[in-house]
């Protein structure tokens, strides 16, 4: 009886490990299909945080049609890089028009780490993502982020005709983003795994 109990516990443990490994693999693939938008406020003052939200809405509204023809992340990255100067120029003009002299800078960056993030209708697991990072002034305030491709952020600003999350992810990956409560403990384990992996990577490169 004791041997049977050990065998059952071992089988359950191995099943959990394999399931978590499969879950982690799916979570690691999700960043290969999306681009995040990351806006850093000048400071945490009420005015600077308000400016951050206004600039967010401005960028979303004026960029809403850019990604409608993008079929995948690679095409979306090309769109961002070819339109970045225009996006930043318009953003700078908008900030100045509101009476601020903050410099607006930005670039498309790879391997930007994000923790697990829950939005109203979906959840993105922790991982290293490609992100368009927009910095207002000193960029020392609380930031805001969402998904630029597929253009999920744009839903709040205006209806769009671009790709949806379900169009760029596998069925299993999409299911993960839609059922955060079901996978809550797995998200936490995956986040710990990413933290350890990034810690090892940062120290091994020194």
Largest sheet: 4 strands, mixed
Radius of gyration: 20 Å
The percentage helix is: 40-55%
**Poorly predicted regions:** none
Characterize the overall form: globular
Order of helices and strands: HEHHEEEEEHHHH
Q: What percentage of the residues does DSSP assign to strands (E)? A: 15-25%
Label the structural class: alpha+beta
- How many helix segments? 7
Terminal-residue CA separation: 52 Å
How many DSSP E strands? 6
Q: pLDDT average, as an integer?
A: 81
Strands of the widest sheet, in order across it, are: 2-5-1-6
From the structure above, extract its key features:
206 residues, alpha+beta, four-stranded mixed sheet, two-stranded antiparallel ribbon, 7 helices, 6 strands, globular
Structural account:
With 206 residues, this protein is α+β, with helices and mostly antiparallel strands. It has seven helices and six strands. It has a four-stranded mixed sheet. Strands 3-4 form a two-stranded antiparallel sheet. β3 and β4 form a beta hairpin. α1 (2-29) packs across α7 and α2 (46-62) crosses α3. It is globular and about 55 Å long.
């Amino acid at each position: 009886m004791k041997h049977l109990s050990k065998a059952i516990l071992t089988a359950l443990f191995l099943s959990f490990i394999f399931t978590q490994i499969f879950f982690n693999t799916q979570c690691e693939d999700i960043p290969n299909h999306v681009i995040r938008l990351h806006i850093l406020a000048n400071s945490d003052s009420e005015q600077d945080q308000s400016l951050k939200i206004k600039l967010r809405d401005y960028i979303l509204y004026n960029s809403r049609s850019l990604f409608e023809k993008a079929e995948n992340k690679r095409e979306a990255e090309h769109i961002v890089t070819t339109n970045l100067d225009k996006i930043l120029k318009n953003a700078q003009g908008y900030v100045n028009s509101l009476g601020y002299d903050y410099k607006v800078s930005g670039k498309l960056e790879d391997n930007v780490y994000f923790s697990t993030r829950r939005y109203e209708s979906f959840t993105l697991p922790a991982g290293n993502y490609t992100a368009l990072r927009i910095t207002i002034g000193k960029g020392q305030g609380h930031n805001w982020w969402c998904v630029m491709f597929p253009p999920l952020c744009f839903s709040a600003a205006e209806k769009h005709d671009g790709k949806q999350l379900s169009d760029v992810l596998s069925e299993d990956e999409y299911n993960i983003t839609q059922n955060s409560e079901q996978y809550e403990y797995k998200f936490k384990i995956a986040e710990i795994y990413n933290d350890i992996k990034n810690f090892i990577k940062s120290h091994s490169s020194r």
